[in-house]
Structure formats: C-alpha cells, structure tokens
Amino acid sequence: MRRSHLLATVACATLACAPLAANAQFAPAGSGGSPTSSVPGPGNGSGNSFEPTENTPAAKSRFSGPSPYAPQAPGVNAANLPDIGSMDPNDVPQMAPQQSASPASGDWAAYGHDDSQMRYSPLSEITPQNADQLKVAFVYHTGSYPRPGQTNKWAAETTPIKVGDGLYMCSAQNDIMKLDPATGKEIWRHNINEKYEAIPYTAACKGVTYFTSSQVPEGQPCHNRILEGTLDMRLIAVDAATGNLCEGFGNGGQVNLMQGLGESVPGFVSMTTPPPVVNGVVVVNHEVLDGQRRWAPSGVIRGYDAESGKFLWAWDVNRPNDHSQPTGNNHYSRGTPNSWAAMTGDNALGLVYVPTGNSASDYYSALRSPEENKVSSAVVALDVKTGSPRWVFQTVHKDVWDYDIGSQATLMDMPGQDGQPVPALIMPTKRGQTFVLDRRDGKPILPVEERPAPSPGVIPGDPRSPTQPWSTGMPALRVPDLKETDMWGMSPIDQLFCRIKFRRANYTGEFTPPSVDKPWIEYPGYNGGSDWGSVSYDPQSGILIANWNITPMYDQLVTRKKADELGLMPIDDPNYKPGGGGAEGNGAMDGTPYGIVVTPFWDQYTGMMCNRPPYGMITAIDMEHGQKVLWQHPLGTARANGPWGLPTGLPWEIGTPNNGGSVVTAGGVVFIAAATDNQIRAIDEHTGKVVWSAVLPGGGQANPMTYEANGHQYVAIMAGGHHFMMTPVSDQLVVYALPDHKG
Amino acid sequence: MPNTYGSRTLTEWLTLVLGVVIILVGLFFVIAGADLAMLGGSVYYVICGIPLVAGGVFMLMGRTLGAFLYLGALAYTWVWSLWEVGFSPVDLLPRDFGPTLLGILVALTIPVLRRMETRRTLRGTV
C-alpha cells in the first residue's frame, strides 16, 4: 500500500501538475493571485462562478471547444423555430383525465405501461403453459437504419405504446407512426426529417407520450396527442388520430428545446426518452454527450404547458432561485448534471422524479459546484408547479465513475408500519443498489447505510467522498468485488493475460478512485447493474423482476498532453470528425486537467471479457416478504457470442451483457429480450424457468410491451440492435401472439 | 517401417511441432508468469512454465522424458486449479480444458518418442 501510494504521488507530481496550472484560469473569481498548482476542491468554490465568463481567455490546449458564449452552430435549432414564450405555471389549465392514469386492461398507455411505470400488464391469455406456442403475428419496418457511408450508431431502444385502436411508436430517428395493433398496418406516419448529424452517441427513441387535452374538445384534431422529444431537441405534438402537427402547440406543433442552452453543435445534446406529463406540465430532460468538455451545454430540466407548449419553468442547478428562460446572450449554467433516463410523473403529489446523471466531465469532479455535488447521480423530486426540488436522494456522492442513473423510477406501495400503504418509489441504479424511497419526502423505506469508501483518492485537489450509500435492505444486483481468480479466458494464455491486466490496475472495489499513473478497474461499470431497461413489478404477486450486467470497465485518466496525442477532442472542436463510436465516455474532458480513456475490461485481442461469466443476470425479488431473492439465473446464451466476435452457436446459458428491460403479466409470464444472444424469452414469473424463446432479426435491446387487440394478447419487441453491444441492427418491430391470431 | 537414416515420418514431425508449441506456451508462462508473480499475483504460471519449456525441449530432442514433463505439469495444473476454484466447471474451463487437450496429444506422442529413442539407441550401438 505504502509503495503504491508513493508511486501515485510521484506520478501525480510529475504528470498532473503542469496541466493543472494551465487550467488555473478557472479558479473562482476573486480568488486572486498567480495560478496555483491545485484546483479548488469541493466546498472551496463559490457556486456558479466556476463557469468561465464572457471575458475568460480561450483555453490553451491543442483541442478545445469554443467559448460557451459563442453562438449555436447552424442546424442546432433543427427546424429553425422561433423562441417560445413563457407563461405563469399557475395558469396551466386543469389536466383532463389521462389514459396513462388508468389504462384499459388491454392497453399499454405509457412507456412503463401506466403512470406507475411498473411494466405490469393485467393480461393473462399467455401463460407459462401456452407460451411455447407463440408465433410471429406481424413485423413492422420503421425504415431507420444506417445507410451506406454512415457509422453504425443505431440502437432504437423503442417501446411502442397502445391506446385504443392504435399502436404508437417512433423510429430510431424520431419519425412517429400509428399502427393497427392487430395487423401492424401503418395508419399514419409523421416524418420529421431528422439529420444524421443530430445522432449523438446513439440513435434511440425509447417512446412517445399519449396526452389528452382539456382545452381541445373531444372529436376535434389534437384532443388526443402524441408528444415526442427528439434527438435534435424538438418537442413535437401531433394529433393521435391523423399524425398532423398540433398547430396550437408551440410554433406550429413544435418547440425548440435548444433555446437557452447556448453554444452547441448537432449531436451534443439530445432527447431519447418519452417526456412525462404531470398535472398538465410536460417535463423534458436531455442527455448531454459524455466526456466532451467541462463546460458542455446545461443539463437543465424544463417544464412546458402540455396544451400550448409555452415555457413554464426551468430547474437549473447552478441558478437554484431563477426558474426563468435566459435572455439575450445568457444561457443555462453549463456543465451541470444531465438526466437522460426516463422520468416518472406523480400527479397526486405534483412531482416529477428525475433520475440524474453526472456533471459534464464525468471522471473529474474538482470543478463542480457544491450545488451540483448535491444533486448528481440522484433522484430529484421536482415540484411541477415551480420547478424547485422538494427532495433529493443521492445514490453516489461526487460520482466520478459514470454511475449515473439510467433507470426509470417505478412507483408502488410498500406496507407501512401501521398497516397503511406507503407511497414508494423503486430506484434501480447502475451500481446494482436498488433504493426504495418514500416518495413524499425521499426518505429510505428500506435501510440505507453510509459505508466508508476509498478516500481521498489519488488526484490532487479532487478528493473522493469518505462514504457512499448502500441499500442494505435490498438484494444487491451485483457479484462480489473482483479477484484475480475471477479472470477468465479460453485458455490459460488469455487467462494469464487478464490476470496481469487485473494486477496492473488499481482496484479497491466499487469506488476505486480514478488514477492517471495506471488504469483502474470500474465494477460495476457504466453499463450496470441496472441500466435504462429499469425493473418490472407485479403488484398482485409482489414480485420485482430485475435484469442486470456484470461488465467491468478498464479506465484511465490521461494528462492533457496525452489526450491531445490520442486526438481526444470535444465534439464542438472545429477539428472534430464525427463517426467515433466505441465505448461511451471516452473523451477529452476539455476544460479539466485530464482526458479519459474508457474500455471494457476485456482481452482486446480476443474481444472476450476478462472476468468470468456470467455477464448478465435476471433476478426475481419478493417485495412483500422481506425482499428475498426468489430465483436468479444467467440471462442469455452463447449462441451469438464468442471469441473474436464469432458466434459459437452454443445453447449454453452463459449470461450475456443485456440492455433493455422486462414486462411482467398477470398470466405469470415475464417477457424479456435484452441479452446479446438476440432472443426474446418468456419466463415463468414464479420459478424463473424459460418457457419459450425465439430468435429476433436483430438485437432485442429494447423494453418489450404487451397489449390486447381483437380480444387477444400480443407481445411486441423492437429488434433494433445496439451498436455498442455489437448486436445486429434492424428496423423491425416484431409482434408475437398465440396461433390463430396472426394479423 | 521405421526409417533408418535421418528422414522423419509425419508423426515425428507432428511431435516436433507439438514440442515447439509447448516451448512457446512455456516461455509465455515463464515470462508473463514472472511479471504476474512480481505484481503480487499467482506464482502458478512461472512455476509451471519451467517444466513446460524443459518438456518441449526434450520432446524436440526426441526424449520420452519431454512428454512426461508435460504430463507432470498437467497434473500440477489440475491440482492447482482444483485448489484455486474447486469443482466449478466454468472456472476449470480456462485452466484445464486447453492443457488437457494438449495433454492428450502429448500422450499420443509417447510411442513416437519411444520409437525415436529406440532408433537413436540402435544407431548408437551399431
């Protein structure tokens, strides 16, 4: 220990201090004096004065983005929309009863089925006994896939919704369509002509939102609307019956969400999740491309009137008391934590639960404000009347591991001490820690312990938190910390290679501090634990279904000089060439002393993970009787995976990495694809037995859904594939039903 | 019929190739295994590498001892891997599957090596 600590200190002194000094212009205003060799630590800053002002000299590194005060690049306002006006949140009209509040039994009215986002359907035609007879009923092609000359950045991740006579969905590039739920016939399609350049890390559209207006009478256009947030940052409202833009919403049916975000380029900021509507307020979040620069566009959360599209409020972390839109050359404070997961609305409490990510430059935290440190990698309950947080529950303190929350919160009732149900919220995390909170005040219902974590770490001026929260009342969706003997391979040769790789890295468990002198192992990595697939919950049986990953990462901070040599530059650098791909988060972190290199913890010569299988699991937890694991097994076979990317064809349930969630039904069947074996499965909810599986035309990295049409149950999965999961991309929505109900 | 003067049969050539493969694996074990041991990791590889290199060299020399050195290293590998991970098939796979396959091939060379040894002895006495 002593020796390695000494080495780390020496390495930091020689490698790190020069760039630290070069970035001293970001010292808090008024701190005065000559540049110092350390950056301000937590609590040393004075809030938003960290952000460069208009007069701050340009950064001196070889690659860097323009001043945050530079104008937005052409195409950032994709539809050249005029600015949207504001209105008083108190003037938002009373919301009409929504389909998502109490869907018809055969409908799937919201991304996670209904307002609770339980991913539970009361349908029961398909059972563990008959599921093995499921056949393809129809296939629908969205038409969105990489064309020749385009880098594969596709992963549609789409879950359709079903309301009444329509199956509503979006393509990976945000075209909106309504299908006949029984036949898959296209009833209408609204093309939004999104440009390839607008695709950020991934072309994804997780879904659309169904909204019923209280202002437009029934029977008139746009009484029922489909709302969508797009990759190119538009909020779009179309008529559910015709697909025509709702003229009364925003500017001719669209709102430019880049308004107020300041300098940006296409692909830097994007929306991939369906925006929830809470008491008439449509709330939007957006992802900000990881790893680019400290002063990336803001992660601001905004509320708009779902009827008119007018701006209501903003929650801008570093302007906590200012909920208005910036005017003139001003912008929302930059580099603040973004939220890219699906949010959950709560009409009864007037809250929206925002799963937050990290401040920009995920792996270096010394330039974050105290306000940011309070709300990053947290669940933030925003009051939809004001845009102010009512409570915050943080799942990682001072996150430098990209443990941002990708999952959507699920609402359910927990039995209270006096027998009264407590309104609860289940928040799965990439850490595999699942937090169960009282949604009235954010207090844990199941015990949460603050446990010691490695601190202060090795990066000067950027100490780690001495403790981190652990949800000790819930089974952890992770395996124990890695050991050398967990290294795997085809033979002792690659196993030896991985053992050396393991020993050459810093590793002191889940919160191993980032290092620049040598790599560090990050487990669970940014792929989870539980990622955007979230969990499903059966309120009848009290069973929670969670799928999760065991995919460690191998990361290293690099000095600015090394980052320049590697050609790491922010997306808004004039030299930036789009195309990239690869692991998420590799980046320049321009504006900080370091860049970041992120790789899977794998044998780069065989493409096999270094750790032993399984790499993906599925777990059923009994929430009503002491949160015990009912069953747990690896998810995904080796059929489409193997060394050098070759499919082995083996039916061995090795447990593959998985992305995408599950559905649980009253029939006692869990439907899930997610695994990289490109199969969809039906699993007996009570035993965990796989009762049916079918091979998809592409990777099933999406949340499935189920609905009823013409009196019969259907199961839909977008087989869109995933570029980083290396599964085949397709544009096919595949819908299954029992025989004799083919479309 | 065993040939008498120098030219080798196919099985003898294959035995020599196997010897070269075992030397290469053994060298990797010794060099990378020493690295691992110095990093604080398992010493199995560097220890196992020595009989592997020696076994490969003896096989190239046409000595039956080479095959037995390999089989001895294989026995050590099984004992070590069972000690390290127990009877877990997933974990035994990388540790023992390849070496055992190679061990079967090595066992098949024993008659060939014996023949080469006998021939050398005969040549020596003529």
TrEMBL record, chain A:
Name this protein carries in UniProt: PQQ-binding-like beta-propeller repeat protein
Family classification: Belongs to the bacterial PQQ dehydrogenase family.
Cofactor: pyrroloquinoline quinone
Signal peptide start-end: 1-24
Gene Ontology molecular functions: quinone binding; quinoprotein glucose dehydrogenase activity
The entry's keywords: Oxidoreductase, Signal
Region (Disordered): 27-115, 445-474
High-level lineage: Bacteria, Pseudomonadati, Pseudomonadota, Alphaproteobacteria, Acetobacterales
GO cellular component: membrane
Residues annotated as domain Pyrrolo-quinoline quinone repeat: 108-715
Keyword rRNA processing: no
PANTHER family per UniProt: QUINOPROTEIN ALCOHOL DEHYDROGENASE (CYTOCHROME C), QUINOPROTEIN GLUCOSE DEHYDROGENASE
Compositional bias of kind Low complexity: 27-41
